[in-house]
Specification:
29% of the residues lie in helices and 24% in strands. It is built from 14 helices and 21 strands. The N terminus is likely disordered.
Length: 509
């Protein structure tokens, strides 16, 4: 029923959009993407409020992933990085006029740290106000990348008035250059310029975000003039818009990787040889060039070139090698039956793969993988679900494989992501399932205390081990495709996907 309602809403939106297109308002920017603003809770949908620049975090990130001042102008730690202090700006007001101070920050973070986040909240023993503009975190042990955690949207700072009974968010009151004016989940968010913002003032007075559930509908919106910026376009939509006047296509490599999540507790997938065979049977070059029209994005490891020292340059490039893949399957005891499907001890090699529509290229890639693995003798059933089916399948243990686009930089130091998802057999919702590798887990935890050259050496060893053990199979490095109307000036894509950067834009006739 939910999918039907979503489809009907999308259809109505298209009919309204193309049946009675109005000239775009000179003072209003319209953005569309597949992201659904389902709740005011930052743990559930904070990414959309961060992108719309309603909420801000203590620490920000530049284009190279380096930490920079956010609501905190500076931070420091004791010698073993177990106690951290953050020094707040002194001229910041929330959207309701109340001042940002250490007590407000502590209240907001204490609530946030009791909700789901892409890092281990248990590392924090206590957070307290030292004085009016200093916040101190006491950790259970040394944690060198701690400041990077505070860039994540789940830690954005809300005013005390945002919270009602049981710490439920009843009003989204942030500090950003835009303030929330309308919230219609999961379809629309509207914001207006906050004139009391402490930093550079925004040029555009009003912004609407409209959920566009299908790539082709978003492409038609920008083509028809009912949207100014659309995100997450599939290759067919990109080709259409490249031929469209008054629209520019923006292509940006980002630190996200398309990969295959595996349930390593499944007897079909617990062998490294089998996982290597599945990887060797992938024609990544064919997918990159034939489907994505992006040659050179084939992935031979989890972390792409945009990930700095986490990318291992000395690894061989990925190559289709079906003969070697078949030999590895034979070594693992799998032989083709009369239909060509691999079998062992009467059991056929059949898998299911879940993917989702938010990234429209994923279903096309999954279909290509289905055909490529069939040549190896693997029968793959592809199912398109909501993205939530992947973490649900992880928790329930029912997932076999999933094709997903994983952002390894929603916290700018990937070490924090690995610690959350790769540090125990339980894994994480978007990480491995039932991976047994105690030596890797131990080295990963030791790396939290390394610095300088020792840290870089550890990082390279960790990345190389992941490429060899394949707890997840990398497919392509992600390239973000967006389209922008000509009247928008100053557009740029944030490679860390934290902000739409609306304050950098102006609208011109």
């Amino acid at each position: 029923m939910a999918k039907l309602i979503t489809y009907i809403f999308s259809l109505i939106l298209l009919l309204v959009t193309y049946g009675c297109t109005q000239p775009p308002a000179a003072d209003r920017l319209t953005i569309s993407g597949p992201f659904e603003p389902i709740s005011l809770d930052l743990a559930k949908a904070g990414y959309i409020f961060s992108r719309l620049q309603i909420v801000e975090t203590l620490v920000d990130i530049d284009n190279q992933g380096q930490l920079q001042a956010g609501l905190a102008t500076a931070w420091d730690s004791n010698p073993d990085a177990s106690v951290w202090r953050f020094h707040l700006r002194t001229d910041v007001s929330f959207h309701n006029g109340s001042p940002l101070d250490a007590n407000a920050v502590v209240t907001s973070l204490r609530i946030a740290l009791n909700k789901p986040a892409p890092f281990d909240q248990q590392i924090i023993a206590n957070v307290k106000a030292v004085d009016a503009h200093t916040v101190e975190f006491q950790l259970h042990s040394s944690y060198r990348p701690f400041a990077a955690i505070l860039t994540n949207y789940t830690t954005a700072i809300l005013a005390p008035a945002s919270f009602g009974s049981n710490d439920r968010i009843v009003s989204l009151i942030g500090t950003g250059p835009y303030q929330l004016t309308e919230f219609d989940p999961p379809h629309m968010v509207s914001v207006s310029r906050f004139d009391g913002y402490y930093g550079a003032k925004a040029y555009i007075p009003y912004v609407d975000y409209i959920t566009g559930h299908r790539s082709e509908s978003r492409a038609l919106m920008v083509q028809g003039g009912s949207a100014d910026i659309v995100y997450n376009l599939d290759p067919a939509s990109v080709q259409l818009l490249q031929q469209t006047a008054n629209v520019k296509v923006n292509t940006t490599p980002i630190p996200r990787t398309i990969l295959i999540k595996l349930n390593l507790a499944d007897p079909l997938l617990d062998s490294v040889k089998v996982r290597q065979a599945l990887s060797l049977a992938l024609d990544r070059q064919g997918i990159a060039e034939g489907i994505m029209h992006q040659p050179g994005v084939e992935a031979n490891q989890l972390f792409g070139p945009a990930m700095g020292i986490w990318h291992v340059n000395s690894l061989p490039p990925p190559r289709l090698n079906l003969d070697r893949a078949r030999a590895l399957m034979a070594e693992a005891g799998w032989q083709p039956d009369s239909t060509g499907i691999l079998q062992k001890q009467g059991k056929r090699f059949t898998l299911s793969m879940v993917t989702y529509a938010n990234r429209p290229e994923l279903i096309v890639i999954a279909t290509a993988i289905q055909a490529q693995w069939a040549r190896l003798g693997v029968a793959l059933d592809v199912q398109m679900e909501n993205a939530s089916a992947i973490p649900l399948g992880h928790v329930e243990g029912s997932l076999q494989t999933a094709l997903m686009a994983r952002n390894f930089a929603n916290i700018p130091d990937p070490l924090t992501v690995l610690l959350a998802d790769f540090s125990s057999p339980a894994g994480g919702d978007w990480g491995p399932m039932h991976w047994q590798d105690p030596a890797f887990f131990a080295q990963l935890k030791q790396t939290t205390q390394a610095t300088g050259a020792a840290y870089q050496q550890d990082v390279q060893q960790l990345s190389r081990h992941l490429a060899q053990s394949l707890p997840m199979i990398p497919v392509l490095y992600y390239v973000q495709q967006s389209a922008v109307a000509d009247r928008v000036h100053g557009f740029s894509f944030d490679p860390y996907e934290r902000s739409f950067r609306i304050t950098d834009m102006v609208l011109q006739p």
